[in-house]
Write a structure and sequence with these properties.
This protein has about 325 residues and is an all-alpha fold. The chain contains 15 helices and two strands.
């Protein structure tokens, strides 16, 4: 269970942690822009940006690499924020958009739109509709019985996520062969065709500000609905806002990069372990750390065996699994 941070002394100064992660985020963006098929070339990248000696390289940096890096950063920040919100809502450290089936619903909606030949706007709308539908479905099924605990909601989400996974498999099995490879890469996480750079960035920035403003309510809500209501928190409106916001974040992330796992699960834990469980720290720091992690992962995915590209979702899983296993070794701190 997640517990309230009220009364806890942060193990690291909040401003120092935020500044540190901001520095890491900026360095990750610089790393992504300066890295290409030839490896990490900061001097060449800087020379191309500060002079007109190589206009082709300048166009590569500003029109190809930088938009991809910004899309990756916005997607990672969105997933980390969605995971932090889900963990508060369910008071469970294992909650994230993928475990609860939110991303599965978004993926099914987007794939159906893609198979129908819809444009980008309709695909985004279908992903959002799928994410919201999945969230409402999980919530309705979990509330149907007498046991309405967060644990029941989490288990219901796991089952619904498995159902969406089966639906995705059916879609892949019946899809035209010419579309199959692109769909598989999209499902495993791929920024090669990301054209919407600003939606995930702007949404992540807005939700970070919203999360910071709602931090006192989130801190109390983490202790339980009854305690939060006694302390004056409007539980139902806040929970509804968080469910909708986390679904929107997930839908934007899925339409930008496909399914990228473990970012929303691991990053909030790392922030809590490095700083404290106060959501004035968790929300902005999760956004910075999640964005940096996905930028580095995507940069490695497109450069390790260039010109071939790896699915970024596979790399985040390879990084996330050992990190999460290490976190589980420290059970008392994991449950903060």
């Amino acid at each position: 269970m997640l517990s309230s941070p009220i009364g806890d002394e942060p193990s690291m100064n909040r401003s120092l942690l935020t500044l540190l992660l901001l520095t890491v985020a900026l360095l990750s963006v610089a790393f992504g822009v300066a890295t290409g098929s030839g490896g990490f070339e900061p001097a060449a990248a800087w020379h191309s940006l500060t002079s007109q000696a190589d206009p082709v390289m300048r166009d590569i940096l500003l029109q190809l690499r930088l938009p991809r890096v910004l899309a990756a950063f916005g997607t990672g920040a969105s997933l980390a924020l969605a995971g932090a919100m889900m963990q508060v809502l369910l008071r469970n450290p294992l909650a994230d958009p993928y475990v609860l089936g939110t991303s599965g619903g978004a993926a099914v909606g987007a794939l159906l739109a893609l198979l129908a030949g819809a444009g980008a706007l309709i695909v985004n709308g279908a992903a959002l509709a799928g994410a919201l539908f999945s969230t409402l479905l999980v919530f309705a099924l979990a509330q149907a019985g007498t046991d309405r605990s967060p644990g029941r909601l989490l288990l219901t989400g796991v089952v619904v996520a498995a159902g969406w996974g089966a639906f995705v498999t059916l879609l892949l099995a019946t899809a035209p062969e010419r579309n199959l490879r692109g769909m598989l890469f999209w499902l495993m996480g791929d920024f090669s065709y990301s054209t919407a750079v600003w939606p995930p960035l702007l949404l992540a920035a807005a939700v970070t500000l919203l999360g910071y403003l709602l931090a006192p309510a989130l801190n109390v809500l983490a202790t339980g609905d009854r305690q939060a209501a006694l302390l004056g928190v409007a539980v139902k409106p806040v929970r509804g806002l968080l469910y909708f916001t986390s679904s929107l974040l997930t839908a934007v992330a899925v339409t930008t990069a496909g399914t990228v796992g473990f970012v929303g699960l691991v990053i909030p834990h790392l922030v809590r372990l490095a700083g404290d469980a106060d959501h004035r720290t968790v929300m902005p720091c999760s956004a910075l750390a999640g964005g940096a992690l996905l930028v580095v992962s995507d940069t490695l995915a497109r450069s390790v065996i260039a010109p071939l590209q790896l699915p970024v979702g596979a790399l985040t899983a390879m990084l996330g699994v050992p990190l999460f296993l290490l976190l589980m070794r420290d059970q008392p701190r994991l449950s903060r």
